[in-house]
Amino acid sequence: MTAQLNPRGDVAVLVPAAGAGVRLGPGGPKALRLLGGEPLLVHAVRRVAEAPSVATIVVAAPAADVDHVRRLLAPVAPVTVVPGGADRQQSVAAALAAVPPGPQIVLVHDAARALTPATLVESVAARVRAGHDAVIPVLPVTDTIKEVSADDVVLGTVDRSVLRAVQTPQGFRRSVLVAAHAAALDPLTDDAGLVEKSGGTVTCVPGSELALKITRPFDLMLAEHLLSGGVRFDP
Ligand code: CTP
Ligand code: MG
Q: For the chain, does the N or the C end have fewer beta carbons within 10 angstroms?
């Protein structure tokens, strides 16, 4: 089925997918590893393409796999595929540079969050549209968090009530993301961090358990279970 992206949509979604997947273990780039018989990237793009506000999707693929990824995604959704960079931030920058004129809201997603529902894409975009420069989906932290020394001695217990675990897609007014990337000095693992460093305000919306990042083998097993169980929940 070919997803028709909405030409009147005001959202571009960048999907960095150029990572090696070292923590998942041997088996090739993580975005191309299979979940329920399909690459993680296919799952991620299919769900993003279901979000009605999305006009454009740009994928940053492993440099050696750009043509393969174009062929892979052609039946899933109309996407632009560019070669990624050496770290996530460079991959995001490459995808950002390929966004056509038009969309004034840019979301940055992870291919590794393959089961992220389209409703989360919409809720992040809606909050940016409502006037916020930078928006991140978050979940409360459920574990007790302790600060420890290099030799494993506990230094203290962190107040959990003020902590949040951060997911993607992270949403931005386009000009804010472009400026934050232009000003970036050090590589960070999230784009909102760049906005924070440049003095901008970042606002939180409720995240989704389904937007878990597939990082280690256990996460992939969990995602397989969620998918095969046909789980239909959207917290
Ligand atoms: N990513 C990217 N370009 C890179 C590194 C990461 O586009 N040079 C992407 C990954 O493909 C992933 C997302 O950024 O979709 C989040 O990164 P992560 O979960 O760390 O994935 P990997 O870097 O592939 O995994 P690992 O760190 O275990 O190697
Ligand atoms: Mg990584």
A: N
Rounded CA-CA distance 220/217 in Å is: 5
Q: Report in angstroms the alpha-carbon separations of 119 from 37, 44, 54, 88, 196.
A: 24, 13, 12, 24, 25
Closest-lying ligand 1 atom to the alpha carbon of residue 29: 24
Query: Quick one: which ligand is closest to 16's CA?
Result: 1
pLDDT at 57 over 90: yes
Residue-level pLDDT at 188 = 75
Say yes or no to pLDDT of 222 above 50: yes
Of residues 135, 141, 146, 122, the one with CA closest to residue 196: 135
Q: Which atom of ligand 1 is nearest to the CA of 86?
A: 8
98: left (phi over 0), alpha (psi -120 to 50) or beta: alpha
Which listed ligand is nearest to 32 at the C-alpha? Answer: 1
Q: Quick one: pLDDT at residue 28?
A: 93
Interior/surface letters 12-26, b for 16+ CB within 10 angstroms, e for the rest:
bbbbbbbbebeebee
Q: Measured between alpha carbons, how far is 33 from 41 in angstroms, rounded to an integer?
A: 8
- pLDDT-derived band of residue 235, with 50, 70 and 90 as boundaries? very low
